[in-house]
Design goal:
The chain is an all-alpha fold. 78% of the residues lie in helices and 0% in strands. It contains one helix and no strands. The protein is rod-shaped and about 110 Å long. The relative contact order is 0.04.
């Protein structure tokens, strides 16, 4: 009994090649996404944490300045703060 080879036409080979390329492209896209998303999320979290820290520093400076003004006003008996810093 002879073995018959099934030959594909050019169109069938091109279609199979396109399907394989699409699968590879999807896999490549998924791998790139998996590599890049944690990097972007880390950068985003770092920006948010920096904003919270910066806000805390500004609040501490504002509180410190306000308490200095109150101290000067209580000590000198006026509501004016000194204009020159020492």
């Amino acid at each position: 009994m002879p073995i018959h080879r099934v030959s594909r036409g050019r169109d069938e080979i091109a279609t199979a090649s396109r399907t394989t390329n699409r699968r590879r492209q999807r896999g490549q896209t998924l791998v790139e996404f998996a590599l890049v998303v944690p990097l972007f999320m880390g950068i985003l979290i770092a920006i948010v944490e920096f904003a919270f820290t910066f806000n805390a520093v500004l609040a501490a400076q504002y509180t410190s300045a306000a308490s200095r003004l109150e101290y000067c006003a209580a000590r000198t008996g006026t509501a004016m703060a000194p204009t020159a810093r020492s």
